[in-house]
Amino acid sequence: MPGQSPPAAPPVRVAVWAVHLVLPLLGLWLLLAQPAVDIEWHDSVSHFWLVLVIAGINVVLGARMSAAAKFRGDARLFLVSLAFLASAGFLMLHALATPGVLVHHANMGFDISQPVGLVVAAVFAFASSLRLDGARAAAVLRSQLALQAGLALVILVWGLVGQLDLPPLSARPGPRDVDGPLTWIALGAVVLFLVAAFRYHRMHRRAPAAMLVSVLTAFALLAEATLAVVLARKWALSWWEWHVLLAFAFGFVAYSAYVEYKREGSSAGIFDAITLEETARAIRAEYGAALEELVTELQERERDGVTESSAPIAARLAEKFGLTEGQTAVLDRAAAALSAEREVSRRLGTLFHHYLSPDVAAALLADPEQAALGGSVVEVTALFADLRGFTTFSEGVAPGEIVEMLNRYHGVAVPCILDNGGTVVQFVGDALLALFNAPARQPDHALRAIRAALAMQRAVDGIAAGQPDWPRFRIGLNTGPALVGNIGSETLRGFNAMGDAVNVAARLQTLAEPGQVVVGAATLALAGPSAVQAVPLGELAVKGRIQPVRAFAVTGWTPA
Predict the structure, then answer these.
(1) What are phi and psi of 439, to 5 degrees?
(2) Which of 22, 139, 354, 515 is the most exposed place for a label (fewest CB within 10 A)?
(3) 493 beta partners
(4) CA distance 250 to 337
């Protein structure tokens, strides 16, 4: 969560990482403290091929970083690539200057090539760990070609001077690789490497990534290698140690890159964890754009009735946005999940519409929060209908015939309600309750309810004509304020309406004759007496109410 510190790394992992860094220092100390142990091994040919292979591997690694930096347009990744290329380039010069192979005598180029390379690499490593926002990053990217060309030119000229055995690189060396002012410069490089490693560790704490761990470990090992270059005697075991440290430093990053490549299936994004936050945001934006386009295409396919695999879409979008195979696989799984989710939503929508009135179902699908318990007071017109004589009818027939009769009646009654904008709230045995003006608002809800009730009676008449022993609907309508909303419990609830207006509608229905529609005065007044043909029934006493209710039997309505 924002504001919280990232979780600490597991103690075991920290201990293993620390051992990797501490053991070389302990080994170097032991060799330097015990000269008898720090034996000399002088093998020029083995040194030449070993160092050349290590340098070659690191050149490939640095080149891949540089290509990724250019592809992403990222200043930090570019500077890291220069750190690796500088170290690799000068390591190669160190190999080429090995005495007794290509150059036939001990020379200064062999001694100082790698220390100089490590100093240059330390500067780039330190620069990459700084804040590179806005203008700084832009300045680095503008200098990209110049820095690459400059580094390549220095390495090329250095190599030519060394192979042609020209001064100053042809000069006779001292007993150590580093001496004089270069010693202090090399120690400064140690500090720069360590600061860079510390800063990358902080980046890893904010956004953990294996590649960040490998880079900070590499910088820490390069710091130790630089220290060994300063302190070790040539061709002694302590001197060979810094060669091994360089191999491990490059190997950590190469192995992490290989693991990332195997996971992603592509080299496109293996160094993305090193990039600046602006680049990371751009990568996420690209991936988000791919997902948005994926959703759009899936929606279009759904409208067109296309059901084939979504894999070709994911592959095309991956090529368009430069996604890795791993990201493409995620995109493909997202497409499958979205298709499955839309199918589930479609089925749920169908089920909702089977078990809920369409207006209620549509409201819940559009805004699930409307399913919360509670409601609001709304003026409604309530329609109650039940079958007069249903109990007597049920006693004389089989249950199957009861279900058949109810389904046929409701099968014609419900469309009459829905066609007039009503909401069927519930079925209770042979009775049903419908609301008008809820949840959708309808200024003419009273007239709509009257039209629906008359249409119901006409539709049922058509069925009852062939079934004279079947009971008939009686319908009561009333208008007034009611509490409309979700009633029940946290685990089970239903859309309903409560209030005196609804109760009066239920009582008017019990006073109606089979085939009759009885409405309260408020309903008739709102519908417009001129638009409705009605017969006054006077003031009727209804059960549970002290005041009588003025009621009317509706016989028809006049279209506007």
Answers:
(1) -80, -20
(2) 354
(3) 488
(4) 40
